[in-house]
Design brief:
Elements lengths: L2 H72 L1
Length: 75
């Protein structure tokens, strides 16, 4: 195999590698977008969960205060 043939073979291999790297970059970009969407959803779920906890705490507190006030008034 001559030097020219070797260089041609190396060039072809490099071109294939560049193409594959481009495909990998595209796939990584799509994965990053999907991860961002997932992170946004998780953040929304966390906020919603915190709001549910706050609502439950408020309801329990209101019920407790109502019971205590009724007990004090009725005695």
């Amino acid at each position: 195999m001559t030097d020219s043939e070797r260089l041609d073979k190396i060039e072809i291999t490099l071109e294939k590698l560049v193409e594959e790297i481009g495909k990998i970059n595209d796939a990584m970009g799509k994965t990053n977008n999907a991860m961002e969407k997932t992170n946004d959803k998780v953040e929304i779920y966390q906020k919603a969960s915190q709001q549910v906890v706050n609502l439950a705490f408020s309801l329990i507190l209101t019920a407790t205060i109502t019971i205590v006030v009724q007990a004090v008034i009725n005695h």
